[in-house]
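SAMPLE LOG
Freezer: B-3
Tube label: C17
Construct: single chain, 124 aa
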Amino acid sequence: QVQLVESGGGSVQAGGSLRLSCAASGYTRNIHCTAWFRQAPGKEREGVAFVDSAGDTYYADSVKGRVTISEDNVKKTLYLQMDSLKPEDTAMYFCAADRRASSCFYRRIDFDYWGQGTQVTVSS
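STRUCTURE (predicted):
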């Protein structure tokens, strides 16, 4: 079992930056894909950024060039650096982990493990 706990959300003005963190605990050796998702009120959950165990990263077109996903394997922590934030980035952000490396490449949404989420609010 893997536990994920997000932090770093908050309220910022458009153009600002935030860095989200996701601390993992438990048996993480079988995890081969980790990702950040977000869900705004009334909208479906969408994948924002993915990183697999080879270090390959994948981004949603809506955030490409503005966010960077990274991980510290020693600290078992996943990060999402978000710059040039826009009001449309307002959402609950979740980190997720999956045992299938292909989940990153195919940008699946049916991940094995999920955090509780951290709210990001961007005002204009």
